[in-house]
Amino acid sequence: MGTAATTVMVTAALTWRVSLDAEAARGTSTFEDIRNDVTAHVMLGVTVALLALSVLNTVFVSWSTAVQARRALAVTRTLGATPGEVVAALCTAQLLPAVGAIAVGIPIGFGLFSLFSDVVVIPPGAWLAVAAPAVLLTVTALAALPAWLHTRKAAGCALNAEPV
């Protein structure tokens, strides 16, 4: 959910930047410039806040996934899986919902922006082509940290540990 909300705001912020150029082409007054500056600051603040919440959400979900799967992953490690394979499995488990969140977040970001603007614009595809993989790369990095910390323990310790 946090990844989708972040994608929505990033898409809306990119669309906002393109709409400013479209409004400038029509000719804007000083009042509209001031309004655009204030709105840009508000959108940046909301985007940064959602990004911070999304980072925390991804870390906590990744951590709880690693804790819940620790016995199953310890068994796979005793059967020959390397720590890198365990980290890759946990990262993949986090990436699958993130791909869906991005696929839903981009169109919702366009829709959200169109609700509040009379200018219909779409940011360049290159911007979205950079933003979507950047979100996925961030989710992967944030998911890898708890997974890597989980693989630092010996597999036998995880099998002997009391259930939580």
From TrEMBL:
The chain crosses the membrane at residues 40-65, 86-113, 125-145. It is a multi-pass membrane protein. Keywords: Cell membrane, Membrane, Transmembrane, Transmembrane helix. Coiled coil: none annotated. InterPro entries: ABC3_permease_C. It comes from the Bacteria. Residues 47-153 form the ABC3 transporter permease C-terminal domain. It is found in: Cell membrane. The keyword Cell membrane applies. Pfam families: FtsX. The keyword Transferase does not apply. This is ABC3 transporter permease C-terminal domain-containing protein.
